[in-house]
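Input sequence (403 aa), recorded before submission:
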Amino acid sequence: MLEGKPFYVAGTNNHYLGWGSRAEVDDVLETAKRMNFNVVRTIVHSVIGSLDGTTGPTVWNWRSTADSSNLGMHGVYVLYWDTKRDSWAWNDSTVNGLGRWDYVVYRAGQLGLKLDIALLGFWQWAGGAQQVCSWFFPDYDPASDPGRYTLFFSDPRTKAFYKAWVEHVLNRRNAITGLRYKDDPTIFAWDLMNEPEIDNTKSDPHGVPLAQSWISEMSAHVRSIDHRHLIDSGGEGFYDRPSVIDPGVELAIPGIDFGVWHTYPDYHGITPEEVIALIHRHGQTAEEAGKPVLMQEFAYSALHSDQPEAYRSWVDAVYDDPHSAGWTFWRLVGKVMGAPTRDFPEAESDPLTEYAPDNGEHFDLIDSPDADHPDTVYESAQVFTSAASQMVARNRPPKGRPS
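Predicted structure, token format:
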């Protein structure tokens, strides 16, 4: 609900808003607005080791000179290991740190968009929880460590870090708008984490399954700081996997306001038709919990000639399901500055030269025909534009009645 009225979601994900130049941020958000979207989901990245590069190694290629879409960070980092203090620290800089989000939130608000923001990522491709674990556990290997799915969610040090980080982000005062993030109406929701994969066969010291324990504790922590915004887990919402939390159990947690789920048929070994069945299964779970559910991440490779048709069938199924609140697909990209990476802030308004090359997954969508991308990419973008117009129309009061 928004101001007492139902709020249906039609939107997208973008991964590089936190480190892209202002021109790149503008291009993504303006495109989202032009495509009739009302929510853009994104993730607070990047997390590194020590600045000297050796005391606390960075477990991913932070110094890549690729374009923004392909994880060229331009020297931006929000969290790091401080060798002087022998502790972790945040980087609040508006040039190369958390302060860059001030412009993202400001610009989205100007355009009438809302942001669904994950407070941290699980995966190591931009640091995330895996980099945090490497701060505390010597020789931690994010690809193979047996504690990959437990340490961050159970160790007192990582839990204390997460709580302090959340408090810092939510209480940040935007240097452009003057609003604290926790008070800004541009924020739609906070994800506790992007895809927190927690081994739910393990338990906390009180015998509560670990995923249920962590999500309960941290959602309550976020709510103790921010009383205005929605909270969700950011999780993948898998059914029938004993190692993860069941969607129905997750929705029963008091601090979780709505359900979310992610699906990638190419990775999950399911067909496009089975995605439709999942849409209705999640809708049924949401009805039983008395909470909404959002199809928060989904993609189907552009190498499939039926990509536009599959997307159309999915958004139609969400629209027709009485218990589904909407969708945000993975992922919309815009034009970027060319590589090698230029330093900020000098390049903030440099001209955008081209669409970034796809990272190999073929999930990127662009809102313009482009010789370097399959025709299905633009066709699928048109599917979402049309579907978004239909979905957000539900948020308008009927003609002839007072708003």
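Checked by second reader. The chain has one domain: 9-395.
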